[in-house]
Amino acid sequence: MGMLRALRGDTGGQAMLVVLALAAVVVPILNLAVPEGTPWHLSTYTVTLLGKYLTYALLALAVDLVWGYLGILSLGHGAFFALGGYAMGMYLMRQIGDRGVYGNPELPDFMVFLNWQELPWFWHGFDLFWFAALMTLLVPGALAFVFGWLAFRSRVTGVYLSIITQALTYALMLAFFRNEMGFGGNNGLTDFKDILGFDLQSDATRVGLFLASAAALALGYLACRFIVASRLGRVAVAVRDAESRTRFIGYRVERVKLFFFSFSAILAGLAGALYVPQVGIINPGEFSPLNSIELVVWVAVGGRATLYGAVIGAILVSYGKTYFTGAMPEVWLFALGGLFVLVTLFLPRGIAGLFTGRRALSPKAAGVPG
Amino acid sequence: MNPLAQFREAMRRDRQFDFMWSVKDLELDVSHGTILYVEDLSVSFDGFKAIDHLNFYVNAGELRCVIGPNGAGKTTMMDIVTGKTRPDSGSAFFGQKIDLLRLSESEIAEIGIGRKFQRPTVFERHSVIENLELAMSGDKRVLPTLLARPSGEQLDRIDEVLGMVGLAELSGRAAGALSHGQKQWLEIGMLLMQDPHLLLVDEPVAGMTHPEMERTAELLLSLEGKHSVVLVEHDMDFVRSIAKRVTVLHQGSVLAEGTMDEVQNDPRVVEVYLGE
Predict the structure, then answer these.
(1) Are the C-beta atoms of B231 and B66 separated by less than 8 Å?
(2) In angstroms, rounded to a whole number, what is the distance separating the alpha carbons of residues B186 and B132?
(3) What are phi and psi of B176, to 5 degrees?
(4) Domain range list for chain A
(5) Is residue A368 less than 8 Å (CB to CB) from chain B?
(6) Is B33 part of a structural domain of the chain?
(7) Cβ of A252 and B145 within 8 Å?
(8) Could you give the C-alpha distances from B91 to A5, A140, B98, B202, B247, in angstroms and in order?
């Protein structure tokens, strides 16, 4: 109930959730019930594409929570997404069993290829879904906690923090490229067969993953909304706008930051875990700094500090990317850069700012106590 | 010292380890009637002595004005008392027992020292009432703050403070939309919400109109007795209208202390400050 109360006054969020619920009903029907070849049929390719966009939207939500509300511009959130993805990928690798090219029941193909004799210690447990699922949240959360604890305690802020988050994801990318790390080197983890016993190639599993992504996005949205509508959410905005004042009225700013940053990393990890079974691969490219910058663009385009704006931005920009990289691959990066410049100049509050007018800035939208 | 003696010294019975110890255990002790002890304090920035062997005491419940020319060290002293700047040497105690130099800004706020900055700093995006709510004393750890809902009593307290600072009509307005004077009052209101024992107020009437200054003087005078107030101010008319005791700082140490008349007739003060 507390979570639903947090939606009061959040028209954009309510509309977004209604659209999401409609999609969760209509998309499975159009894909599974409408026969192939008829004009209303939705291809499985499209369902998976939509599911992928929803995981991007969840990732954008995580970025908006720390950037929009707390003012921490993280240029390394892709790292948490990728770590969640790798944890899920490890589970999917173990599910392949002896169906791999080398037919080894214990070791994934790349380990056999590298002449490894036994499973590295950190691969143990990933044959269990519950363990892997826990790790998709815990690993990104723990990394964010340790990183944040060091960074916030030393009061690293602003552009310096952005740079070290960027360095974090870059360092992880280089590390995961190495075969010795035990995560498949530059090929990453791929060739997945099934998840929880369901064939990953079947239409029903694809629809199931789409629905799981929609549910995760809805729950993630409600959780974020609950946080930003609470007093802690108001403290976060206070930190963003006047950090030292917040400290002088008695809040431990670094702990507030640590909470938001870790929670955001957990959301990003969840998004990554849902992303990997849908796209069927995870490789170190996901750690690339460019990815993390792209998702900051999603949030900027959608509108900061609105949450639903981040969802809109992620879906629209990702759709644009799918379209451009198909139609005119060479112009995509120019389009992305141009979009960022145009939005910064003409839509400082993003697409969400078009709907709300001046209201997004008023205290009413942020939730009044009492 | 042999190892055993060292161990005994480290483990002596009254030893308090930092990790065992919480600000909540600190109790303000003003049984000698003094709430702030600043003794032999020095701090320098790049060789410039901002504070030079400063001794300064404030009585509990007193309204004390601190004046002095630019660069006399007034704001630096407040920075040290509130934990923003660490001194090179000396001590600062809150009551007889609490060593302020060991605490962080938020801990100092928690034990009851509130500060108003020179430039009004309120949370511009939040409404007046939200500003007061955030400043309200209470459990300010992360999870309790996440689940906090204001109780009836707390809402009454917010209303009371809104009345005291004269912003009851504007409670729903964004703080960024207030006039300069109103922001100053809101900030004083935020200090009051913290229920501090000691308020440090830095130039509250800078940029205010005369009627606004009069209201501010009334507000500060109404606090006397319940709270101790240290007021740093440049405007001599304003100081004259409220001060009982005045401390004059000059080049980082106390030049004179006494009533406004005594201070004004002190030849040294006249020379460095009033005679300008």
Answers:
(1) yes
(2) 8
(3) -65, -20
(4) 2-366
(5) yes
(6) yes
(7) no
(8) 50, 44, 11, 22, 19
- Confidence (pLDDT) at A365: 40
Residues of B in contact with A368 (CB under 8 A): 127, 129-130, 172
What's the token pair of residue A31? 């894909």
Q: What is the mean pLDDT of residues B172-180?
A: 92
Q: Of A50, A2, A86, A76, which Cα lies nearest the Cα of A367?
A: A2
In a domain, B80, yes or no: yes
Which one of A1, A145, A231, A260 makes the best mutation probe of the B interface by having the most chain B beta carbons within 10 Å?
A: A231
Residue among B146, B151, B202 with most chain A CBs within 10 A, to mutate: B146
CB pairs under 8 A between A and B: 102
- B184 falls within a domain: yes
User: What does pLDDT average to over chain A?
Assistant: 91
Contact A234 B174 (CB under 8 A): no
A60-84 average pLDDT score:
96
pLDDT in tens, A273-290: 999 999 999 999 999 999
For tokens 């509300």, name the residue: A69
Q: What is the pTM of this model?
A: 0.87
What CATH number corresponds to the domain at position B33? 3.40.50.300
> What's A195-264 look like in SS3?
ECCEECCCHHHHHHHHHHHHHHHHHHHHHHHHHHHCHHHHHHHHHHHCHHHHHHCCCCHHHHHHHHHHHH
Q: Do A250 and B137 touch (CB under 8 A)?
A: yes
The percent of residues in chain A predicted with pLDDT above 90, rounded, is 78
Whether A298 and A56 have beta carbons less than 8 Å apart is answered as yes
Q: Tell me: the pLDDT tens digits for A107-121? A: 999 999 999 999 999
Tell me how close the Cα of A11 comes to any Cα of chain B, in angstroms: 20
Q: Which two tokens stand for residue B39?
A: 């003794």
Give the mean model confidence (pLDDT) for residues B140-144.
Answer: 90
Closest-CA residue of B relative to A230 is B146
Contact (CB, 8 A) for A336 and A317: yes
Name residue, tokens 């145009």. Answer: A342
Number of domains in chain B: 1
C-beta of residue B35 within 8 angstroms of C-beta of residue B111 = no
pLDDT at B16: 65
Does B14 reside within a domain? no
Q: Do B142 and A250 touch (CB under 8 A)?
A: no
